[in-house]
Amino acid sequence: RNLKNLQFVDSLDIMRxxxxxxxxxxxxxxxxxxxxxxxxxxxxxDVSRINLFLSDLRDEDVTVSMYPSCSTRxxxxxxxxxxxxxxxxxxxxxxxxxxxxxAVDEKRYLHSILLTHIKRPTPDLEAVxxxxxxxxxxxxxxxxxxxxAIKFVLYSVDVNQLYDVALGTxxxxxxLMVAEKSQKDPKEYVPFLNSLRYMKPIDKYTIDMQLRRxxxxxxxxxxxxxxxxxxxxxxxSQSLHQQALRLYAKSPDNVKRIAEAYGQLLxxxxxxxxxxxxxxxxxLYTQALPCLIKSLRWRQAMSVAKKLGYDxxxxxxxxxxxxxxxxxxxxxxxAVHVLTDYTQNYDDAIAxxxxxxxxxxxxxxxxxxxxxxxxxEELRPCLIQACHVQLGCLETHQTTFKERTARLAVVRxxxxxxxxxxxxxxxxxxxxxxxxxxxxxxxxxxxxASSSGSNRSKQTARTAKNKRxxxxxxxxxxxxxxxxxxxxIESIAEIITEVDGCxxxxxxxxxxxxxxxxxxxxxxxxxxxxSLIALIGDKMVVIWKPVVPTADGPQAAPSLGPSATxxxxxxxxxxxxxxxxxxxxxxxxxxFSADLTSWRLSFLDGRR
Length: 608
Known about the structure:
This protein has helices spanning 8-17, 24-27, 30-35, 37-44, 47-56, 62-65, 89-105, 110-118, 125-137, 143-154, 159-167, 172-180, 186-195, 201-210, 214-221, 228-238, 241-247, 252-268, 272-281, 285-294, 298-307, 312-328, 332-343, 346-355, 359-368, 373-425, 443-460, 464-474, 484-500, 503-515, 519-543, 566-578, and strands spanning 547-548, 555-556. It is mostly helical and 608 residues long. The chain is flat and about 105 Å long.
């Protein structure tokens, strides 16, 4: 009743007498209390009582954890909210009370104001000392009151921690006041504080280094023009290059040394491209060039070589080296550009185009640089051989795809039969071993094998090594294995991905081989690829769609879209009630397009 009527003094007396947790003053009506913090301070008045309330505060709702009968929350609205934790409650109450106490009488309630900073989840000791320092500098309090305030703070916090925070304010008088209240030997701190009495930037740097505030230390050491080597050592040891580049932006010589150190750090971290950008930004081209070469940024590398004044032989040597590296990385297109633009070695450029199966580019280069004889000598035999190799790959994919899909249908049929057998025997369908039935043995033998296999797997999966081994076995394609369906689907997905990725190459082959009047080979390649794409497009709908058992065998689960009829809903409900759908295991459906226009040559269709 007292809390409801905002009679805080009577409430505090009763709670102290009966040892009731003080958090109830706030938790009984949180919004009401926060709106009346000034009234709370004016009524209570006594600093010790306010401190008692603040000391008891914690991020917890005691009407949930300790006094549920005192809760004023709507039981319907709070249904299911069982957590007593209230994040940020202590800080929020402290902030509100601090503002109220400052408004009423800051000097009187100084200790309580300081306690609101200390009671935060992470004590804000810097704010405590700043508040004391402000009052001292403004002469609002006598020295004795300042001393009392520091003594009060030391009751709640570690003196060494407070000493470090005071040192971080660069106010030696404040540091000395804290040190004098501690158990420190004056011989420990007086000589050190005397060495800092002028508080120059180098002195602040010394303090920051002792407190391990390296970013602030860099700011202060950067103000000392004769201490750049010290600053660079700090930058290198603490990886403060970005901050240093900003601080020394107006010092060209120093900023270049920082950029060079930063580039070296990035390069050692295998970030050669980023290192090159930093070095180029500050005109450190000699150091940037190796980074550009390592990152295969050949365009920027050749530009930097020009800025460095490379002569013709050096440029050719650099371009040749870059081209070899690009070819080693199978980046034949860029290698061709480097060779043609910077070495004029057209034979090597054509050879790189042929090695990279860049048939259009090779055909262009041969005519561009007067090497038409190479069309018959090099391009035709290479292209014909590549077409035959591609045909062999497509035929192998087609054969393997048909075998895998046929086997997948058998495996799914056996799984459906196993599920039906379990239903007939009254066994559950969601057992841990239900997915292990993929062979054609009897139900009893399957159950026994599955149970023993499950027990063995539990024993061998206790270590990470055995778990990885079990995962590899799970994806091993072996007929009759427990995870054969998953392995089959993953194998089929790999074939589909590989086939889908060769559209561009086959399209280019068809264009150039037709230009060379190898129409019979072009027709055969186009027909084989078209039939494989059509086959995959037909089978994907079946492979990656849930299957439901029916009297006539497995069928795709009916989709319930906007056009579904009442019969579709009834059938789906009956299927779900009886046996549920068999989910698609394994990897998701790969990206695949049944497009036959982007790569296909329509004039070859009439020559089958």
